[in-house]
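The record is passed on directly below:
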Amino acid sequence: MFVAERMTKNPISVTSDATIAEAARLMKKNHFHRMIVVDGGKLVGYFSDRDVMRVSPSPATTLSRFEIRELLDKLTVREIMHRKVITVREDATIEEAALIMYNNKVGGLPVVSDVGAVVGIITATDILKTFVSFMGLESGRTRFTLELENKVGTIAEISKILADSGVNIDSMITCRKPSSEKYDLVFRIDAAHSEGIKEKLERAGYKVIHTVRIN
């Protein structure tokens, strides 16, 4: 799955000469936590609601509402935005976007085309929604976790057991156990077809360490 399939297209942006007051109103109206800054079609920065709060007067201030509004009308986005922007290409995979966010500790990324134009934005929420969709968690599935030895052909053998039982695999992932040659195999199948699968796998010598029906 690719970023272009999960991003928000044509994201709302502001220019660097917009006032903090304008930006704050736009963020509040659209329930944004971060916004990108675009000048002349070029991505020049980004800022978050925390940046807005940082330059806003404290709730304990003695300034009047008029004075606060006047102050925020004088400050521009240029003065609070971060100029080093981490981006991701629209043809990148969801896994790449997730890794970039994780490594850089950010909750969202502007998405750019192959010519550098901003075409979207993808957030940690989009990644989470993709995970839920990819794993089929909304449609009633049974999740199996098997502990396996690192042996060639194991997954093929397990797939054959399921196929011989008339069961389709909706999703499958593997995860190496820390400091071990063993790994976990996690797969999901239609809950209606899960009866007896655990017993068949165990009779074939496989260690089923967990099963659960999700949703």
User: Anything to note?
Assistant: The first strand starts at residue 8 and ends at 9. DSSP finds eight helices and eleven strands in the chain. The mean pLDDT is 87. The domain at 3-132 is CATH 3.10.580.10 (CBS-domain).
